[in-house]
């Protein structure tokens, strides 16, 4: 179970309620009034706890589980050990996530302004806003109702934050307009200068970055990630995008709905990502490219050309996955042949 020093648990909940609220159904409706008091992994769950099976490679752990109830796909029912109550879901991991949120809802910060915080009189704070110790809210900033601002965070002049946002400690926000229900983890930097300059042997000349950053509703930005403001047009992060830790988004980049950018990835200036693009860890995308809707980029890949919608690319330079692995296989055969020739 989660350490109660750090995580406050709700519940217990009946299995009928959990099934209804997490998009599942009970295999045996007679078990609807049985209760679960927590969630846990297959190998750690006990009789009063709810677990899940999504990947069948964990079937051996499932066979040994002591959990009282388990969320799983109907096709895996035959793997269930005796005595475990089954909640059937077409998407077990999604259903588990919803159940876990019920047991462990996001903590709510108490409304109010810490005595050490500095809030300019010209800033506008909505009802129920929380401002933690040593945060700074500059003139003209607007913070929506129910939003919390972490310790040491700076909300710059005229920045707009929507309702019910959670901003972690040591975040810096400038030149940005942020929607509702956005989560910014510690150390996020949004709206700083884009990397724009005119090269000159006598000394590079900075190009003023005159755009903003716009972030849609329901986005999440991971710890120590940075999003540069635009040079003239804005940098735009569409609604529902999730950006992992240590990600760099360059100036003028536009991202559609629901994109996922994983740790240490980078997107260079003026590149356009369609809806639901996935960039895996440590991938890099050059500037002024177009990555089509639903495209996927493998870990450590380097993109130097446009990628059509729906395609998966991998490697340096990135190529369609099948083509990339054919290239790898060809090189392996050539290396083996050369080795055999030299024997």
CATH class of the largest domain: Mainly Beta
Largest sheet: 12 strands, mixed
Counting H and I runs of at least 4 residues, what is the number of helices? 4
Query: Which architecture of the largest domain per CATH?
Result: 3 Solenoid
The overall pLDDT average reads: 95
Show unreliable segments: none
Number of strands: 40
Distance between the termini: 59 Å
CATH superfamily of the largest domain: Hexapeptide repeat proteins
Structural domain tally: 3
Instruction: Give, in spatial order, the strands making up the sheet with the most strands.
Output: 8-11-14-17-20-25-28-31-34-37-39-40
Q: What percent of residues adopt helix (DSSP H or I)?
A: 10-25%
**What best-fitting shape do the alpha-carbon axes yield?**
flat
Rg measurement, Å: 25 Å
- How much strand? 25-35%
CATH topology group of the largest domain: UDP N-Acetylglucosamine Acyltransferase, domain 1
Structural class: alpha/beta
Features:
Udp-n-acetylmuramoylalanyl-d-glutamate--2,6- Diaminopimelate Ligase, Chain: A, domain 1; alpha/beta; flat; UDP N-Acetylglucosamine Acyltransferase, domain 1; 343 residues; 14% helix; 26% strand
